[in-house]
Amino acid sequence: MNISHQTLVEFINVQKTYDGTELVIKNLNLTIQKGEFLTLLGPSGSGKTTCLMMLAGFETPTHGKIMLGGVELNNVPPHKRGIGMVFQNYALFPHMSVFENLAFPLEVRKFKANAVKAKVEKVLKMVELVQFGSRRPAQLSGGQQQRVALARALVFEPDLVLMDEPLGALDKKLREQMQYEIKHIHENLGMTVVYVTHDQTEALTMSDRIAVFNDGIIQQLAPPNVLYEKPENAFVAEFIGENNRLQGTIKEVEGASCLVAVEDHLISATNVHERQKGSSVILSVRPERIILNPKVGIDMNIFEAEVLELIYLGDHIRCRMGICKSDNFIVKIPNDHTNDPLNKGDVVKIGWQVTDCRALIVM
Question: Whose CA is closest to 119, among 131, 100, 102?
């Protein structure tokens, strides 16, 4: 993570309503560091795009203020913010060549002709489109058009680049390729990126930190590994990656752990929010953390489960099992020949560590 720990962007007590009643952004406080790749992740209507549009200047906060480099942006029009933008639909000028599209942001900023030529050639090389400068956007593939849109956002060397679902129109293979390309360009240039997506894999792949939005609130803000391994609530656990959830009631509390009654089973878990005896919680266990035929251990939950469905996915077998009166408990079994073959209807022992089982509050 190449971050200077110098604040570039601040949202201070920001609220946004469109109808004067319902807040789509609820008292947002967020600091973005210079050089950071921050992703705003969440379902449709969660507030992530509204947040980005306020930063770009296309929407105005109802309350609070947004700062860029220590300067309040609320009354600064979009074209004077010096921010690069990349949209899902590319927004390229169809009547202009690639070169002319890239030159346009420089010309409106009154760069001299020789500087325009040098900067356009530099970004064309960066996105590997040197030989395409004379073509029109319609003569390019979707991936090439997306590269041009990215180059146009970078050509005037902004401190901040905003990307709104920029890879949403691409097919899976090209989308994955572009994720790595954008990540590498960010690492090489060191600019600050704020990226909006609803694709969790994309967010995990590209980001230094991820802000998970739901209902106008950041549910958790953390690096990808922390977000995945240590979700703060049931929404984050469910939204980031695949997750098994079991609802239960805390029967005992001991230190950082608790004993949770789920149907007629008792399950040991990490008591994330230090809830008291009698509290309702959601237990979260990742499918890849579950062990087939585990050895008995002091910090291990072990149960019998029935194999209900097996799906072959190449590098692993996705096994749906019945446990604790749930028939949708997922176990990912590595396809590495270390496990005996399973068949539908088998009853097997499965287990997981107490530290891999998190007792979470419902948000």
Answer: 102
For β-strands 326-334 and 316-323, DSSP reports them as antiparallel
- What tokens does 161 get? 């680049």
pLDDT digit string (tens) for 150-163? 898 888 888 899 99
- Cα separation of 156 and 102, whole Å? 9
Q: What does the pLDDT look like over 99-153, one tens digit per residue?
A: 999 999 898 888 899 999 999 999 998 888 999 999 999 999 888 888 898 898 8
Give the model confidence (pLDDT) of 193-217 as tens digits. Answer: 999 999 999 999 999 999 999 999 9
Residue 346 amino acid letter: D
CA angle 344, 350, 351 (to 5 degrees): 160
pLDDT digits (tens, 9 = 90+) for 244-289: 999 999 999 988 999 999 988 999 999 999 999 999 999 999 999 9
Apex CA 186: angle with CA 184 and CA 192, to 5°?
165
Alpha helices, DSSP H, located in the chain: 48-56, 98-107, 113-126, 142-154, 172-189, 200-206, 224-229, 234-239
Closest CA to 207 of 222, 189, 217: 222
Helix (H) or strand (E) holding 83: strand 83-87
- Which residues in 264-281 are b (16+ Cβ under 10 Å) and which e? eeebbbbbbeebeeebeb
Give Cα separations from 32 to 40, 69, 82, 147 (angstroms).
11, 10, 16, 25
What number of other Cβ atoms are within 10 A of residue 335's Cβ? 13
CA dist., res. 146 & res. 170, Å (int)? 9
Q: Is 350 helix (H, G, I), strand (E, B) or coil?
A: strand
